[in-house]
Amino acid sequence: MFIWQARTPPRQTGPMTDTTPADDPRDPHLWLEDVTGDAALGWVREQNAATVAELTDGERFSRLRDGIREVLDADDRIPYVRRRGEYLYNFWQDAAHPRGLWRRTTLREYRRAQPDWEILLDVDALAEAEGENWVWQGASVLRPGFHRGLVELSRGGADATEVREFDLGTREFVEDGFRLPEAKSSVDWIDENRIYVGTDVGDGSLTTSGYPRLVQEWHRGTPLAEASTVFEGKPDDVAVHGLHDPTEGYERDLIVRAIDFYRSEMHLRTPDGLVRLDLPEDARPSLHREWLLVRTRSPWHTGSAEYPAGALLAIRLREFLDGGRDMEVLFEPDARTSLDYYGWTRHHLLLNTLSDVKNELRVLTPGPDGWRCEPLAGVGTDAASIDITDTDPDHSDEFLLNVSGFTEPSTLLYGHVGQPVETLKRAPAFFDADGRTVEQHFATSKDGTRIPYFVVGDPGGRPGPTLLTGYGGFEVSLTPSYSGVIGRGWLAGGGTYVVANLRGGGEYGPEWHTQAIKHDRRRVYEDFAAVAEDLVARGITTKDQLGIQGGSNGGLLMGVMLTGYPELFGAIVCQVPLLDMRRYHRLLAGASWMAEYGDPDEPADWDHLRAYSPYQNLRAGQDYPPVLFVTSTRDDRVHPAHARKMVAKMRELGYGHDLVRYHENIEGGHGAAADNAQLAFKWALVFEFLLRQLT
Fold first, then answer.
1. pLDDT tens-digit profile of 601-614?
2. How far is CA 481 from each of CA 148, 387, 477, 484, 675, rounded to the nearest angstrom?
3. Residue 346 pLDDT more than 60?
4. DSSP string for residues in 411-422
5. Are the C-beta atoms of residues 518 and 597 closer than 8 Å to each other?
6. Would you call 670 a catalytic residue per the annotation?
7. Which helix or strand (DSSP H or E) is residue 320 part of?
8. Among residues 154, 338, 552, 632, which one is catalytic?
9. CB atoms closer than 10 angstroms to residue 291
10. Is 70 exceeded by the pLDDT of residue 329?
11. Quick one: pLDDT at residue 399?
């Protein structure tokens, strides 16, 4: 299956006066945008030292760090796998292999408690041999033979990777094979001797977002400079990709042009040239054998029908190319139910839907009389979260499902559609869930919209220390799932954990997202504030015991809560955040997110952005809650300068280390940690900070 999918004013504390151009030198903290400059890194080391000295000096921090590390390195975790031909592949990190092992086994072995794994690549050994801080970023394995792979490795966890061809038989990199230097590249196999490649090949080869603008066909044994250009996107596109579908009997080549984060074009590459599929730019198409599936993001009028936003439609590709537009509706949303995602087996389509943020699985089967829909047999309906982790669309109706909940450790189920389901693996419990309940409540936002949220904890301990998180962007849904890190680091100590399902996410379909983008961004922040107020009104916590945490777009959310709603919270953790919305589109991948936030260089957009942009809305003399900023030097997606400049400005305005703390990991990419040791350290910092402020 081939699918492309791109992972406001708060209450004011003073007048908005910043009308400077985005590149105006009057910002005194622009020097902190020099990621690895001596002055900037000197400032980082100074901030880190103060934070580490304060938060790591006690026995509790060590206990938190070591306990979280045990969770991350536990030998009895489920080793999740993906099928590639006869083998199941897994990437594994533990205490002995912090950088990780790429390995594989058979289904027969996997059923055993201790499978016999064939090690393909030891990333720790490679990093030591080459003197590099390699971090695994995945591999694309050649179908149908599965004997070659394109391995991606990054330095320190950045998005930019080095690509190397790997022989799965000899378990060695291929001498004189396909290889790309570090860049934000896109690669896909065509056959054993050709690949599609998009990478940095000089001026004009990247978009303004820093992703490939060219799709090239590269032949084995020739220099990259001789690769032929198949497609050229526009400079302000997000990216372009070349893809090959090797499904026997349905071989085809595709070019996808990502115009922005939500609009794209799909082209079939034919001997006569490119043929664009006549679809709405905001639709999400995918192909499986003879079928074209279309997921709508806005209402679509075509042929004699009108299809709603959030629907899933099906038609045979040949019929569509011949002008047919009579599509079968496989899923249609309602006020409570949306399509989360779907996946093909050989003969069936598995739909995972959300009904008030709770999963339901359905099986759809095409036949001569249309599509039949029924529940997936053998899978209970009372689980909080059911995720399709893998299928085998080439050869069988096999599926792997992960079933879990906030207090229920994961269970990995295996089966074939229409046959009994077996339990393959069970994850251990990392904290005592006795006495802890999961409740769903609804807060009422400023405009009257009901906002769902989950509360996990011991009702007998209320009101008490509470950690609230949210995201509210990019149509990302936050669903119930088990976290040993949250459980051991927060719940086990008596804390309450809350997940808010804000607009801007995808919990109720695309319209739940589009209600809160660009000029309507304020709704995300009003929703989160409403949940915070509802928690206090229900007696679950108090303002002084309420801490909040979020990263990336969720870090922006934290920044807005800090500057726009400071009276609601006792502490804030702001991770890998966007904060300077005047310059976000000029920093790293920021230009690719203008479909979500708007263009700061457009006056109408900036009027809305500047109303909530945290960096521009900082004021002296405000009663801000204590805040911890966490980021990574190697984050090449969200620039670390967002957090750096925010802290520097707060220092300039007179806020000292007793209020503002900062930690920047030198490695880690957008996850702010390159291995389990760094991840455990990061989370221990977060929990230690919150516990000091809220208890």
1. 999 999 999 999 99
2. 34, 10, 12, 10, 22
3. yes
4. EEEEEETTS--E
5. yes
6. yes
7. helix 317-321
8. 552
9. 17
10. yes
11. 97
State which H helix or E strand residue 665 sits in.
Answer: strand 660-665
* pLDDT of res. 3: 37
Integer Cα distance of 35 and 120 in angstroms = 35
- Residue 13's pLDDT band, with cuts at 50, 70 and 90, is very low
Instruction: For residue 552, indicate whether it is catalytic.
Output: yes
d(CA 662, CA 7): 26
Please state, in angstroms and rounded to a whole number, the distance separating the CA atoms of residues 393 and 391.
6
Percent over 70 (pLDDT), the chain: 95
Specify the CATH number for 38-69+431-694; select among 3.10.20.30, 3.90.1150.10, 3.40.228.10, 3.40.50.1820.
3.40.50.1820
Whole-angstrom Cα distance, residue 501 to residue 477?
A: 7
User: CA-to-CA distance for 255 and 2, rounded, in angstroms?
Assistant: 11
> CB 531: neighbour CB atoms within 10 A?
25
Q: What token pair was written down for 54?
A: 């304060």
Burial class of residue 157, CB neighbours in 10 A (0-12, 13-18, 19+):
buried
In angstroms, the CA 183 to CA 213 distance is: 13
Q: What's the mean pLDDT in 612-639?
A: 96
Q: Which amino acid is at 427?
A: A
CA dihedral (318, 319, 320, 322) positive or negative = positive
Task: Give the three-state DSSP class for 499.
Answer: strand
Tell me the average pLDDT of the chain. Answer: 94
Per the CB < 8 A criterion, the answer to whether 468 and 535 are in contact is yes
- The domain spans of the chain are 38-69+431-694, 334-428
Evaluate if residue 211 carries a pLDDT over 90.
Answer: yes
